[in-house]
Specification:
heterodimer, A: 222 residues, Rossmann fold, 4-stranded antiparallel sheet, 7 helices, 29% strand, globular, B: 802 residues, alpha+beta, 4 domains, 8-stranded mixed sheet, 18 strands, 13% strand, elongated
Amino acid sequence: MTSMLLSLSKITKSYQTAEGPIQILKGIDLQLARTESVALTGESGSGKSTLLHLAGGLDRPDAGTIVVNGRDIGALDDSGRARYRRNEVGLVFQQFNLIPSLDVAANISFHAKLAGRFDPDWEHELMQQLGLSRLLARYPEQLSGGQQQRVAIGRTLAARPSLVLADEPTGNLDEATGDAVLDLMLSLSRSAGSALLLVTHSMRLADKLDRRVVLRGGRIVA
Amino acid sequence: MKQAAFLALLSHWRHRPLQLVTLILGITLATALWSGVQAINAEARASYARAASILEQNGLPQLLPRDGGSIPTAVFAKLRRAGWSVSPVIEGDYRFGPVRIRLIGVDPLTLPNEGPAFPISGSSEFVDFVHGGGQLVVSPATAVRLKDVAAMPLKVSGDIPDDAAFTDIGVADRLLNRRGALSRIVMAPEQRPDLPALETVAPELTRQSAGDRPDVARLTDSFHLNLTAFGFLAFVVGLFIVYSATGLAFEQRRATFRTLRSLGVSLRSLTAMLIIEITSFAFVSGLMGVVIGYFVASALLPGVAATLRGLYGASVPGALSLRPEWWLAGMAMAVAGTALSSVQSLWQVRRMPILTAAQPRAWARASATALQLQSLAGAILLGLAISMAWAGSGLASGFAVLGGLLLGSALLLPAFLSKSLQLAEGRSRKALTVWFWADTRLQLPGLSLALMALLLALAANIGVGTMVSSFRLTFLGWLDQRLAAELYVTARDEDEAARLRDWLPQHSNAVLPIWSIEGNILGDQLQIFGVADDSTYRDHWPLIGGTAGVWDRVAEGQGALVNEQLWRGKGVQPGQTITLPGEWPVAVVGVYSDYGNPRGQVIVGLDALVRHYPNVPKLRYGIRVDPAAAADLKRQIVQEFGLPGSNVVEQDSLKRQSRAVFEQTFAVTGALNVLTLAVAGFAMFASLLTLSGIRLPQLAPVWAMGLRRRDLALLEIARTLALWLATFVAAIPVGLALAWVLLAIVNVEAFGWKLPMTIFPADWLRLGAVALVAAVLSVLLPVRRLATVNPADLLRVFANER
């Protein structure tokens, strides 16, 4: 158990809506080893993104424990979870969520600098690999969707997080671009020594990862 | 269907009540300050017209002496004998103890019926009026002031302006010691057709047509223009809020517009609904604005009345009347201003394709081209302002310089801030600091209108504050020079004055008569003072310029001094000869500063004054005495002559009164400054609140990367303060330039005097502190929202599903 990077145990989570509370996750148990890549699949509304947010310290579970690097992040206060996000996790979203006021170079180095792990050589290598070297002075609004997602991946991996959480990172990209982006992400995650938990609808993409977990009705079914 | 569509449009406001409040308050504040100022102006102008109609009978043609002096009774008699329907008037300033009033002596028997109704009716009132003992017809306020000091019966009439008294011409002749010398002659508008020509009967008189604008209305034009400028500034700042709020509301409803149009609502119907909606808001807010404006005006009017009295001697009642035209004008401004602020948004709706995507930030994102164009327009306006300051002349030109300076600077502000932020970003090394400056630059288009409003308010405060403080410093120094005598005594009548003249020299170091008459000089009614040949004047009188041996020539009766107003206003230069009333040519030998006096003034030697005008009232005296003995001498004078204490004034007391008048004079300006700053603070609040609603997508990624909500909130405060500081720094040179324009151009044109400019950095710090508090207050609510934002709201930015 101690060799696991991420360990989720008996996680439940519900949300309040106008119609009353809706339980999204109903007792999830999941482990992720260091440098392992796992695809989280399931239908819309099955709780994939919620699970990712909990693992990323963006939200808290109603019950259960989330242990990352041997520490229960569910027990952390606001500052502790902010530190956790800054130092141990990298997040990649479908909407890219780049910082519109910063150019590509500043966006990529932003998280690494916040975490105090800025490494110019590694960043240079990432930019080369991601094909962003010529776009460094551009702003997010001047990039295509595929380019923006490559920047988002670069930003995440530049910080060398131990855990990368990606929520449908290719969902806004065409198939060919999506494949290329995912291949890059897998290869670079390995180079960075990061584990990857990736949410996707696509079985084809899920097959590229080490393992696949299927979520249905708030429970892991496979 | 239309009703359902309209209700769908209106439902936006139910979900965003704060936005609705912002919009309503924006229109309300803009209308309130504008209509408040206009109410004051309308009241003052109506008062001038009423006063002129009653006091000067300016609804009737008049005959005035060509030489600016007086009209002998014989000339009046000649006109009457020739058949002209004319009536004599004797008028002048008269002191009842400490109360100085305008005394107007009329002849009720010959006064034309066509003039303003004279407040005497019935035979018993007529007998009281012409009775030898005399009767003064005065306003209720003047009656209160005269109650204990005028030994004459008073009759109160609501038609008479304050600080004036009507009396029988015989009484006025006696009190003013005119010995039959008339001031003017009033003519009936209808005269017999077969009369001999006026030029033949009375060639020494000149005819003035009816309906001329009263002097005081001309004099106070600049003051009212100043008030209007302030009102307009506040109105523009209020419209910035309206523009910002309507822009956001329209942008946020783009999806609704698209849906409504997809469901068959025509573009024409949609536009009509939006116009009805915005007009309704304008109408309701305008109504509230006019009501608040009435209360603002009521609160400010006593201050304005004091200012007008202090600066121009104009009398305006301290109470406000409700005028329908003012209500209508206020409502029209509210509707027109709202329409102007919304026209761009409406135009965008008309041009919007049905399937266009919503761009929640498009309204706030000014393109680089737009910023360049705005900066270019600002630079052109500044250039024009500089050219006009250098080459222009006249009051209108002065205000054009002010307008160009303020608007040009405001337009240049966003570019200045953008460059400053770019510079700060370039010099930063830490990721968070780089993001902070870059993100601040991204917010700039959404905040620029509010910041421009803040710049205008701060610059106006610094400019007007510098002008007032410079004026205060100069005025106090000047007062010390001018009020050199230790005691000032006013006799109650000429006999008492004669006894004082005998008694005072044995009990003081010097006696300085303060004698003056009024007369027409170079076309205006001015005061002519006589001064004794005394070292007090030679040592203390504040001369701006003069020829050699100024005081010797004045003492010898060969020269006259003119005040700065006459020098600048009429271009009277030392060395030039001017003609005083009674065809008395005298050489101008010097110019002296005379702050606070709206009119021209001439000083001649005392002996020469008495020689040319033997009837000059000789009631007032300045007394030089050892300062330590002043209080004792005052007591002796009161005991010896039975004079009321208020007729013997010590120097300190007089200076204190003058300072109080000065401070009161600029109280209104201070109040308007505060109001403008308050509106600008609200504009800042409205913009920050607006932006806070669309900030989450920009802040959520930074939060996800490990910044706490509290940190983000603190950075938001720092961002607002950084922008406030940059705007404040920019406002200082603009404010100083504004002060220079006010002191060197507008004041010279408006009042006739020029003041040295002094800089008061401590005042800026005080203003900066007030503006800082306003900035912090404006950001508190948006920041509190951010600090306590539900993480679920931040997550929604990332979530594709749950």
